[in-house]
Amino acid sequence: MCLINWYYKKVEGVRGLTVETRKPIPVKEAIRKVMKFAEIGSNEEVLLPDSYGRYLAEDLIASHDVPPFHKSPYDGFAIRAIDSKEASQLNEIEFKVIDEIGAGFVTTKKVGPFEAVRIMTGAQMPYECDAVVMLELTKEYERDGKKYMSIKRSFRSGDNVSFQGEDTKKGTPLVEKGTRINPGVQALLATFGYEKVRVSKKPLIGIFATGTELLEVNEPLVPGKIRNSNAYMVQGQVIRSGATFRYFGKLNDQLDECFEAIKNALDEVDILITTGGVSVGDYDYLPAIYERLGANVLFNKIGMRPGSVTTVAELNGKLLFGLSGNPSACYVGYELFVRPVVKTMLRSYTPYLQSVDAILEEDFPKPNPFTRFVRGAATFKEGHLVVKTSGLDKSNVVTSLSGANVLIVLPGGTRGFTKGDKVTILLLEEEQGTNTLWAEK
Amino acid sequence: MCLINWYYKKVEGVRGLTVETRKPIPVKEAIRKVMKFAEIGSNEEVLLPDSYGRYLAEDLIASHDVPPFHKSPYDGFAIRAIDSKEASQLNEIEFKVIDEIGAGFVTTKKVGPFEAVRIMTGAQMPYECDAVVMLELTKEYERDGKKYMSIKRSFRSGDNVSFQGEDTKKGTPLVEKGTRINPGVQALLATFGYEKVRVSKKPLIGIFATGTELLEVNEPLVPGKIRNSNAYMVQGQVIRSGATFRYFGKLNDQLDECFEAIKNALDEVDILITTGGVSVGDYDYLPAIYERLGANVLFNKIGMRPGSVTTVAELNGKLLFGLSGNPSACYVGYELFVRPVVKTMLRSYTPYLQSVDAILEEDFPKPNPFTRFVRGAATFKEGHLVVKTSGLDKSNVVTSLSGANVLIVLPGGTRGFTKGDKVTILLLEEEQGTNTLWAEK
Prior knowledge:
Two copies of one chain form a homodimer. By secondary structure, chain A is α/β, with parallel strands linked by helices. The first copy, chain A, has four domains: 3-42 and 201-345, Molybdenum Cofactor Biosythetic Enzyme, Chain A (3-Layer(aba) Sandwich); 47-65 and 175-200, Alpha-Beta Complex (Molybdopterin biosynthesis moea protein, domain 2); 76-151, Molybdopterin biosynthesis moeA protein, domain 3; 355-440, Beta-clip, CATH 2.40.340.10. Chain A is 20% helix and 27% strand. The first copy, chain A, has eight helices and 24 strands. In chain A, β21 (371-381) and β22 (384-389) form a beta hairpin. In chain A, α2 (27-35) packs parallel to α7 (327-345), α4 packs parallel to α7 and α5 (255-268) packs across α6.
């Protein structure tokens, strides 16, 4: 049985009588409904060199003092400060140099009165010494085959010594789990001996495209058809958000086959995304599949543009995102709804897109009956962020997405904006995120 | 022969007579000297799904119109607008529905006067039609087994039609080579049939650590030794900048062996980084190796803190970066000197760290005889960037690096800064970059 006819007939039967009317919910409420099902994912271990950009699955706590021993921050001589007490321009004090230690070595000698150890930057202080004299403040010489140095000023206990634990005391919490690992965190992990790092596993997101008009990227153009761009765009969004993907290709138009494909895919992935097929159009059959799966549809209409038909369903705690087939709507849908779920699975405490104020650099005269998310390009200007739309604001316009680094939020019920107005923008390329939804600030 | 003794003796011999004095050059000049050797790297092809985050090696030009045909943006009926001319509330006009086309299909029928085709969103317009009537403005019915619809208003030619090329005309340059591929660019690549994408090859950066005090990450702590954190930190920086790395481990203290190791590594990589071993300390032997290689040392002292001993040499056009062994200096050295070279190899036209103004949120009383780069954490506050130092400003403090997302630039010759002062910050996590060095703005 052909799905298209099947579903077409179903709709035909009701049109004019009880035409399916969907009730839009506010975008803030839609995000909240989705986030109720966002749960922390599982963990895995990776080698330290592979940990960049991953999310820490456990708190990083200093397992020893840093530095782990008193050490010399300079090239010079380690002495007992007390021996230098009488040193002055007029009273040169001589020290016998009894050893020489490089970084990584420890002296085996006991340092007595008026004895010194030649010490290199980073080397451990001899036990008896409590000050370092920098090389350039000493005079070195030999006498009877023995080495000496002398100084003309006094030093206090602690002078030029990096004390054990002065950077970090053992037990200090350093980096909270859920933090994205940057080069500085990698340095800390190395310092504390993490050859392997426990990180959040990347959520696996399944992607299906729907649309009888779609060609795959390797197929030549034919009349009436266009290439599938959404699936590849979403793949990039998945990676940008810290997850990984499996692309299942295009759903065909047989309901039974689609149902089986989606059902099987659900077993293999953490999140399932479909692009297209969620409108009330005659050929849009995702609603029928959600019904047959017994999935709980959280919403199927949102008071926003683009992406009003974005549909999210849940089955046994697993989320199915029915993103619009329209590229801009699909893009916005991913960033608003899927991204914070991914970040939560990764243990991030700041799952939402960072929202900041920016100055609009051009007029946007269209009224906004619903909250509008416009693709924008933001730049810095004298310490402020300024923003322009990144191309035509038509929801089918793919080109505007390539230059977008923010979404401009134009609240519903506003009449249009003019150059110089302050607007809220959501930063798409910023990794830090925030724990507060722009709408709840 | 033991290198340490060899080099130690060499230095011993001259100390007090012609102690090696290095002449610091301004940091801006140092960057300029390095960038003279920054050349565009080679290319490779990757599959579209693997292209996220890579850099386009060729301009992306629209290979066809977008949309590639006139299409309907709505579900409805395609008509000849002229037939609707007399339609009004009092004059309902009837159309015979002769076909039904979904997205991806084309009608084979010729549409005559007062005929219509049921058309779905995204479907190609029938050749004779020039307007679309939205479904909700029609009345549908059957008569004698034939389908009809009627309308009560007129439409003009072009109403509700997305015209071929209205988004993008064939031949339009869309994305410049050297652009980092984001999800929007991936959508464009898919639209134009790029199953494979020509991208800049990631530069391969070799990394050696030096330092007799260093343990590898998997070795237990022993007295006098610390774990090597720089190599792992730099690995993260390499990846963040868009390159890839090979870690060659720790150089030992045998000059001949070190020389061979570095010489062989140079043949395998595009850029070579060493951490440590560049000071004038007795155990620092990189200068001897540069000499033996016959490398051209561009500079070995910079008027900056931290990282004044950062040394860069060049051999047959290949750059050898001698970064400081001190973690913060090493970190700053990578971002200021290596990163823009990597970005240039990737074809980026904006190789430098984005520099913007920010308001200092705390006092920084230390005077700055030389330009200082302080690790900072910047956040947004009412559309402005505000910045704090991200920890102790001691160059050996690893913990301050993990929270850093910017470098605060405090120009040389300044007396210290107070809360509320405007400072320049360099954004470490921003991917866009700039073509203008902060110092030349």
